Each structure stands twice: as structure tokens, then as C-alpha cells.
């Protein structure tokens, strides 16, 4: 029976907006992790059947099929194709799902899944160019409300009774955990530092140290007057790329490679597009039901920190152990390079599982339109 396993996973450091990676073309970032991926695995890139790449703002430097452009920029054989996926913030997690499905179906023997976003160079929303992607029937269905992620985060906080202090405490915890992971070298094995004309970027740039609840409380709440969501408890605008080398167990054995993890179960869910960010809750329930696993069998949960209300509402509904939720920090501290985030999170999770002998890990992330991917990996 065919399966889908991950044999290597790498990522760039996540750069701050207008930070160390802002001078690097998104195709160059993507090509960098592609080269690093096969170099670490010792695999001939000619064996790769496809590169499935997530990217949200597919305009300007990120258009014209950024996946294929990255393959050619990396110097890989012209025989290697690439395709670019948009499921909003979950684009590169969806790329992993498509890659796994292709392996199980026999469409691929070796495939790369990943993604990229340079939010410094291709600003969020730039693909809209003043035109609405929503037609009148859509707007009529939701009483003329055009969804807004920040407003959705405020609605979630209100629905689950989450206070500003709770959100800010969660944000500080994300930074504290990420800082501890940096200090202990827990990210080093997954990172592919990037050399730029201005110097080498070797660490995630968004991690802040020494913050206080009192300091965060002074930040404005731009989405709602007297609201609770601020820049301090939301994900950072970022640049970055990540990639995972996937194949069947049979192919890994033939190549003499030892897989890290197997894609155990996957699921998708849709939910209210106005609240927008709640779908990780039904997606998690669905993937657990599909897997046959109990919640207490999962040793790490990665729920994307698009805004602090998202993982906190998820925790309130699902009940996962707080110590196992985003144990090395999340997007509030590490950043959220949209189309690259799903692969960044999965790269971080699979390394954390290997480093700590964790058998099962679960990842989910909210996505535009009120959607979510959920993935359970099994350590091998």
C-alpha cells in the first residue's frame, strides 16, 4: 500500500517586513530552500516529479507560476515541473496535502511541497488592485459584509469571552517560547541561512524579548474601537520560504533514505467566512475522527497564530494541553509569511517531533474564506 513520508524539511529564517530578507526576490528565496533540501537529503533533483508551492499574492514577482520559476532558478533540470497553490494562509499546508495525495495515488514517487511569501516586496492585498474579489451574490448572502480578518478576530474574542489581557499574555508566551528555542539552538537544524548583499540572515527576526502586558496594553486596536486585537497579539508581516521533500516509503528505501514522519491523516473544513478564522476547530475534530486517534495521543499541536484569539478559541473548544500548543512559539513571534507559513510550521513541527520523540503531531491553520487544513503526522 502506497503512503506519503517526509524525508527532509528546511526553511529560511523568517524575515521582518523591510528586514533582512526584503532585498531578496521571492523566487530566489524559494530556489534557496529547494537547493538546500536536496543537498541535505543527497537526492538528485532530476528524481522530483513535481514541486507544489503555496503562494497567496500571486502578482508581480510572485506570479507566472513561482514554483516553476524557482525550479529553474535553483538550477534543477528543466524536466522538473512546478505548480502554485492558493488556499490563502494555508497554501503550503495544502501543497503538502496535494503532494501526499499524489504519492498515495501513484501520480508521484518523489515530490517537493512548500511555499513562499515576500510581504515586503509584494504587499498583502496588492493582487486586488482596488477591485473586489466578491460579487454581489456573495455580499447579499452575508448582508453586505465584506470579510476582514482583523474584524473576524475581534468577533472570535467576543464570542469566546477572551480579554485583552488573555490575548496579550498569549502573545508574550509565544515570544518567550520562541526566544528560548533560539537560545537553546532548537531551530538550527531546520534553518537554511540566507546570504544577502547586506549580510547573512541566520535567525528569525521577529522574536522580541522582555515585553510586558502593560506595554502591549498601550497598543491601538485598529479593527474595533475599545477592541482587544492589536499588532502586539497578531501575527507579523513577514518574508520567508520553506520546503519538504516527500516520497513513498518504498522509494525512500530504494534511495537509502530514512523518513522522518508519515502523513497519517488529513482533513479540510469550512466555516463562517465573516468570523473567518474558526475553521481549525471543525478541521481538528474531523482529522481526529478520520485518524482514529484520541486527543491525548497527540504530543504537539501547531495552530497558526494569525491572531491570538484563533489558538485560544481552538483550545477552549478542543481542549488540547496548553504546554503542547505551539511549544516553540508561533506566528506572533516567528512571523507569518502567508503562502510559506504552512510549510514553515510543518518544518518546525516535524523537527520538534524528531528532537523530542513525539509520535503524533497535529497542525491546523485558519485561512481566508473561513477554511482550514488539518494534518496529523506520525514520527517514524
UniProtKB/TrEMBL annotation:
Domain Thiolase C-terminal: 257-378
Boundaries of every Thiolase N-terminal domain copy: 5-249
Tree of life domain: Bacteria
Annotated keywords: Acyltransferase, Transferase
Keyword Transferase: yes
The keyword Acyltransferase is assigned to this record: yes
Active site (UniProt): 89, 336, 366
A molecular function GO annotation: acetyl-CoA C-acyltransferase activity
Cleaved signal peptide residues: none
Family: Belongs to the thiolase-like superfamily. Thiolase family.
Protein name: Acetyl-CoA acyltransferase
Organism: Klenkia brasiliensis
Amino acid at each position: 500500500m502506497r503512503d506519503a513520508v517526509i524525508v527532509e524539511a528546511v526553511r529560511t529564517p523568517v524575515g521582518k517586513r523591510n528586514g533582512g530578507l526584503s532585498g531578496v526576490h521571492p523566487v530566489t528565496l524559494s530556489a534557496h530552500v529547494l537547493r538546500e533540501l536536496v543537498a541535505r537529503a543527497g537526492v538528485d533533483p532530476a528524481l522530483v516529479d513535481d514541486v507544489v508551492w503555496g503562494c497567496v499574492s500571486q502578482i508581480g514577482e510572485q506570479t507566472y507560476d513561482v514554483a516553476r520559476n524557482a525550479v529553474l532558478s535553483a538550477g534543477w533540470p528543466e524536466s522538473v515541473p512546478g505548480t502554485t497553490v492558493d488556499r490563502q494562509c494555508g497554501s503550503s499546508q495544502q501543497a503538502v496535502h496535494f503532494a501526499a495525495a499524489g504519492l498515495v495515488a501513484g501520480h508521484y514517487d518523489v515530490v517537493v511541497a512548500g511555499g513562499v511569501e515576500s510581504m515586503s516586496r509584494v504587499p498583502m492585498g496588492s493582487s486586488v488592485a482596488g477591485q473586489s474579489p466578491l460579487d454581489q451574490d456573495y455580499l447579499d448572502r452575508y448582508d453586505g459584509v465584506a470579510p476582514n480578518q482583523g474584524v473576524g478576530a475581534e468577533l472570535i474574542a467576543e464570542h469566546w469571552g477572551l480579554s485583552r489581557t488573555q490575548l496579550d499574555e498569549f502573545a508574550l508566551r509565544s515570544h518567550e517560547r520562541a526566544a528560548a528555542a533560539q537560545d537553546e539552538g532548537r531551530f538550527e537544524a531546520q534553518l537554511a541561512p540566507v546570504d544577502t548583499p547586506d549580510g547573512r540572515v541566520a535567525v528569525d527576526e521577529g522574536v522580541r524579548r522582555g515585553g510586558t502586558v502593560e506595554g502591549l496594553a498601550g497598543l491601538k486596536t485598529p479593527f474595533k474601537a475599545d477592541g482587544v486585537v492589536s499588532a502586539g497579539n497578531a501575527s507579523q508581516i513577514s518574508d520567508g520560504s520553506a520546503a519538504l521533500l516527500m516520497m513513498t516509503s518504498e522509494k525512500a528505501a530504494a534511495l537509502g533514505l530514512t523518513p522522518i514522519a508519515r502523513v497519517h491523516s488529513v482533513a479540510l473544513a469550512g466555516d463562517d467566512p465573516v468570523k473567518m478564522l474558526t475553521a481549525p476547530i471543525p478541521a481538528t475534530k474531523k482529522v481526529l475522527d478520520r485518524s482514529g486517534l484520541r486527543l491525548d495521543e497527540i504530543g504537539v499541536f501547531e495552530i497558526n497564530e494569525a491572531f491570538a484569539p484563533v489558538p485560544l478559541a481552538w483550545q477552549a473548544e478542543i481542549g488540547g494541553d496548553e504546554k503542547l500548543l505551539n511549544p516553540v512559539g508561533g506566528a506572533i513571534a516567528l512571523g507569518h509569511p502567508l503562502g510559506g507559513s504552512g510549510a514553515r510550521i510543518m518544518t518546525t513541527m516535524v523537527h520538534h517531533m524528531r528532537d523530542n520523540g513525539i509520535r503524533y503531531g497535529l497542525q491546523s491553520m485558519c485561512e481566508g474564506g473561513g477554511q482550514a487544513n488539518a494534518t496529523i503526522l506520525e514520527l517514524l
